[in-house]
Amino acid sequence: MDNVKIEAKELLYPSNLLTISRLLLLPVTLFYLGRPERRREALACFAFTMFTDAIDGPIARSRGEVSRLGELLDPIADKLVLDSTAIMLSRTRGFPWPITGLILFRDIGILLAALVVLGRRAKITTAQSSGKATTVALTAATLGYVADGPRSGRPLLWIAMIPFGISFVQYGVRFIRLMRGQNHPSGSNSP
Question: In 129-190, where does DSSP find H-type helix?
């Protein structure tokens, strides 16, 4: 697993610091989400948290600092933020519990599959475009729920289920191909 080695200097890359800040902001965001009277603070924290997600990748690429740490930490941070936010919104703002269950099921499946691929092939798998579209769409739906509850959030959530469903299938197909040792449709072994 030599190609998965993480160097200490990666902790200081601005993109990785943004990802770490996203994780550090999560408890504060959840605190505000749990208090309906603190909706504005919750909205600001969640929006800032997801803004860091939007800019960390472009910063890493522009600085030539795409790192193994970032490849590991970023998807975990995204899933922790969106999953825990969905749970809290289900408790406080009418976010549908069945959708929260589907999101958790998908994300746990993706993380477990990534661990299997990493263990068997010493390879970090990266997000599919549908996975990134799902993150954007779920972020919009979540912002809608935080700002206005189901009235604004529910229509955005149903739209988010389109890339969510596509990504669910694509990640499953990619996992099966990687386990069989087949190349990705683009002709390379990278996902």
Answer: 129-148, 150-180
The whole-angstrom separation of Cα 23 and Cα 12 is: 15
Percent of the chain as helix, strand, coil, to the nearest 5: 80, 0, 20
How does residue 186 score in pLDDT terms, banded at 50, 70 and 90? very low
> What is the four-CA torsion angle of 81, 50, 35, 153, rounded to 10 degrees?
-100
- Tokens describing residue 39: 């909706």
Query: Residue 64 gets which letter from DSSP?
Result: T
Asked whether residue 149 carries a pLDDT value surpassing 60, the answer given is: yes
Angstrom CA distances, 9 to 3, 16, 68, 126, stand at 16, 10, 11, 21
Cα 2 from chain centroid (whole Å) = 26
What is the average per-residue pLDDT within 145-161? 95
- First-to-last CA distance in the chain? 18
Q: Output the six-digit token pair for 67.
A: 């790192």
Q: For residue 83, give the nearest of 29, 35, 155, 16 by alpha carbon.
A: 29
Task: Give, for 47, the enclosing helix (H) or strand (E).
Answer: helix 39-62
Rounded to two decimals, what is the model's pTM? 0.85
